[in-house]
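Repro:
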Amino acid sequence: MAENQPKCLVCEQSSQEIPLIELHYQSASYWICPQHFPILIHQPHALVGKLPGAEKLAPHEH
């Protein structure tokens, strides 16, 4: 597997293992799997250290 192959921000599985959703953020591409996509919406603080600027993202308000 190539080192630069897209992987989920959270579980690091590749597109060979699980479907991935591509995100474009701050002029870069990132990927997240459907299982962890709710983290991006409801708990973006959990992506600090994995997604640059995640500490500035606000969670969805219910």
